[in-house]
């Protein structure tokens, strides 16, 4: 259904990436008259949510992140059932770390703490179990058999389709230009003007542009991430039913950069192995801005890791693509009400972690905007942590 100029909504959600689409779906499923506005024609690949797969795992060293994952898996399962197609592949997830294994022991404690299996493996045990890896004997791993991958593009489509099925109004190719606060909020786009009792802003790397008329800015750094796919020389070692998703949680060499990856269900001849960091960019609308040459440093570092650790992978990428991370100074999200306008809620800074948790993020943002009690510990996600010296992070 199309909305008309002046229409009044219970909630308007700005940005139809995975976080905004999840929030909008949740609101519509609760019978809220919801408008979801997206600046680009859908589907698009200009923000952070597009692409083939994302890791979905329980294993975080921060217990408040692990705490949301059981419900996130449950909610993805419901979305999957309703969509009638597979979204999650449970190929397992291996976190690999060098001594002193600080993160690893917390990961294991946290995963087991939410009732999930998590095996502690030595480097030699990992090499035996997954011969596509060649770890040193000092490396250790935590293996979560029930974690795995989510098919990002399919999941995103399912969220948006279900939002519309639940009665939501989705307008793509419609950019929000201005938001005027009040008990009834005015939203001006390049095509129309609407009114809403509440607004959720989930504009990914464009968040500060949307927030400008509302008088606040979040310390977000935008990073262009080079997603690399490498040719597999020994496909039997890296087939998705035998090889897990993986994260090297110790920074690589002298670079402050982690590496992660997974086998490709869609293209069994390739494996995704990527840097979990990238080149800073000023503006999401000028993603290719700073010289492309800088990305080569990241690709070269990953190629070195492949030479040392992945005996059946050719250390020259056959495909590279771009995606954007929005990163806060502490690498944690922002999920909070606007400090002055309590009927405006912001969800931003989801960096390289936000996909897996999106259904729960959507629920939390909904609870915040409706003024309900929030189900989780959201203190680590407060906006005030960037301004208050008493921040309890
Ligand atoms: C390469 C890569 C790998 C990743 N891997 C993982 C992983 O393995 N596991 C995991 O959990 N997470 C992963 N992530 C992170 C996850 O994908 C992101 O955290 C998540 O997609 C962020 O979603 P978002 O909705 O906040 O942002 P976006 O997807 O960018 O959505 C924001 C939307 O708002 C729209 N918008 C902006 N301004 C306006 C406006 N003025 N008017 C209307 N619309 C507007 C944009 O067009 C965009 O569609 C990865 C991310 C990348 C880039």
UniProtKB/TrEMBL annotation:
Record field: transmembrane: none
Record-linked SUPFAM superfamilies: FAD-linked reductases, C-terminal domain, FAD/NAD(P)-binding domain
Record-annotated FAD dependent oxidoreductase domain positions: 10-368
Keywords: FAD, Flavoprotein, Oxidoreductase
Reported cofactor(s): FAD
One Pfam family, short name: DAO
Similarity comment: Belongs to the MSOX/MTOX family.
PANTHER family: PEROXISOMAL SARCOSINE OXIDASE (PTHR10961:SF46)
Name this protein carries in UniProt: FAD dependent oxidoreductase domain-containing protein
């Amino acid at each position: 259904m199309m909305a008309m100029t002046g229409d009044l909504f219970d909630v308007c959600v700005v940005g139809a990436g995975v976080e905004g689409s999840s929030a909008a779906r949740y609101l519509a499923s609760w019978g809220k008259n919801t408008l979801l506005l997206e600046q680009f024609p859908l589907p698009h690949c200009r923000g952070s949510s597009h692409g083939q797969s994302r890791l979905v795992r329980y294993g975080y060293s921060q217990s408040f992140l692990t705490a949301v994952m059981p419900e996130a898996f449950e909610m993805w399962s419901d979305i999957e059932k309703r969509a009638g197609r597979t979204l999650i592949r449970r190929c397992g997830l291996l976190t690999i770390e060098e001594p002193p294994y600080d993160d690893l022991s917390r990961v294991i404690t946290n995963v087991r703490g939410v009732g999930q299996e998590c095996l502690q493996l030595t480097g030699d045990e990992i090499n035996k179990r997954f011969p596509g890896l060649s770890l040193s004997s000092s490396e250790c791993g935590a293996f979560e058999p029930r974690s795995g991958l989510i098919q990002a593009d399919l999941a995103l489509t399912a969220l948006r389709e279900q939002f519309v099925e639940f009665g939501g109004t989705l307008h793509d190719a419609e950019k929000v230009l201005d938001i005027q606060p009040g008990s009834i909020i005015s939203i001006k786009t390049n095509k129309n003007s609407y009114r809403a009792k509440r607004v959720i802003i989930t504009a990914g790397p464009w968040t500060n542009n949307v927030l400008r008329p509302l008088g606040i800015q979040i310390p977000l750094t935008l990073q262009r991430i080079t997603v690399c796919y490498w040719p597999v020389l020994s496909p039997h070692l890296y087939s998705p039913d035998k090889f897990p998703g993986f994260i090297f949680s110790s920074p690589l060499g002298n670079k402050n950069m982690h590496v992660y990856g997974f086998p490709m269900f869609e293209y069994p001849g390739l494996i995704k192995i990527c840097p979990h960091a990238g080149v800073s960019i000023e503006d999401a609308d000028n993603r290719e801005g700073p010289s492309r040459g800088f990305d080569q440093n990241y690709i070269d570092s990953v190629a070195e890791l492949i030479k040392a650790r992945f005996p059946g992978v050719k250390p020259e990428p056959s495909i590279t693509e771009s995606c954007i991370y929005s990163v806060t100074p502490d690498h944690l999200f922002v999920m909070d009400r606007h400090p002055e306008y309590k009927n405006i809620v912001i969800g931003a800074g989801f960096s390289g972690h936000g996909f897996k948790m999106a259904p729960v993020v959507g629920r939390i943002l909904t609870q915040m905007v409706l003024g309900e009690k929030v189900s989780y510990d959201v203190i680590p996600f407060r906006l005030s942590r960037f301004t208050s010296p008493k921040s309890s992070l």
